[in-house]
Specification:
- The strands form 4 sheets. This protein has a 7-stranded parallel beta sheet, sandwiched between helices.
- With about 425 residues, it is α/β, with parallel strands linked by helices.
- Helix 3 packs across helix 12 and helix 4 packs parallel to helix 5.
- The protein has 13 helices and 16 strands.
- Strand 3, helix 3 and strand 4 form a beta-alpha-beta unit.
Amino acid sequence: MSRKRKALGEAPVGRPGRRPERDQKNPKEAREETREGDPEETRKRPERGLRRGIEKKRRPLGDVPAARQAYDNERGEALPALPGRASRRSKTKEEIVLSIRIGIMGYGNIGRGVECAVRHAPDMELAAVFTRRDPGRVSVLTPGVPVLPAQEAMAHADGIDVLMLCGGSATDLPVQTPLYARRFHVVDSFDTHADIPAHFDAVDRAAREGGRVAVISAGWDPGLFSLNRLLGGAVLPDGADYTFWGRGISQGHSDAIRRVEGVADARQYTVPVESALAAVRAGQTPSLTTRQKHTRECYVVAKPGADLAKIEHDIITMKNYFDEYDTTVHFVSQQELDRGHAGMPHGGFVIRSGKTGWEKEHGSVMEFRLTLDSNPEFTAGVLVACARAAHRMAQQGQTGCKTMLDIPPALLSPLDAATLRKTLL
């Protein structure tokens, strides 16, 4: 049977089920001619060698089904489409890498930190920022990125690969994460340690119902510190964990104070007790209560006419935040707060002290330490790494809620497994 070939510059046609015959032209010249031909007849084959973990199939952005139509019908106007996905070319190989499209829900300290981290991620791009404020009054750093009302987020689900939930743990994330996990792959930084099991269960149900991956409680504690506590206990089973935070500003605790009636603004410092820290580093294994390990210092701006005694009482008795600590409340003016407490430093230590040997005759101390100029920017870096892992787990067909204890470490890195083995082992 004779084969028909198309005119020069058109893609060759073979029998169904077989690859077309290769053109004898230089491959680069053939690609250039392909770009100039008819788009339906000369569509270029996808290049090989896409990095594992990066999405291989391009989806049209802004192509939102029923939600978009409902919005159009209700408002009488078209829902704005998100920008197209960027195509990045490797510096070492001729391969197309499609970026992971990130959405940010909430543009506060964490949200801005996520935007900075996405800028420096080689496999990501910022698709949209969603806010409960007036979008016209929110200015983002990334050129061309739309700022949209939070209530429109659901209609843009098809244009976002991972939605970063950057609200607070006190009232935002317990509602937002289960809500959005039904339509998006999501990452949050829920940090109320005592409530993580209940939060996990609620998010897991929602994510499984929607067929999505949700990573919760990402950050450095919970998060990186949790991983180090796990490693310490696995390597030194006969020992004890000690976690010290600070000195530094806790975003979650500061946010909790700002929600107290009568409070206009606040910063909360977590301060380790130096004597306890020194004893643990010396290899001792003392039994320390929460109160013996840390103190908390609060700098509070009260609203005019507010009851200062009631504010102080509400703070120091707040369950899961201050009730187990020696807490000091300082009332200051807004000017004093802005002048002396504008930065966001933090840090801390995870220490595992244990015994090894047949008779437990030898001591060992493991220590992981963080010293941070910007707590929210560092936290955002962890969230972005978890977004990469969530995207890859979704591509593997996984669903449900995950924590950093459930994520294989290699999924956090933009590098492929072979490169990690070559450079890190």
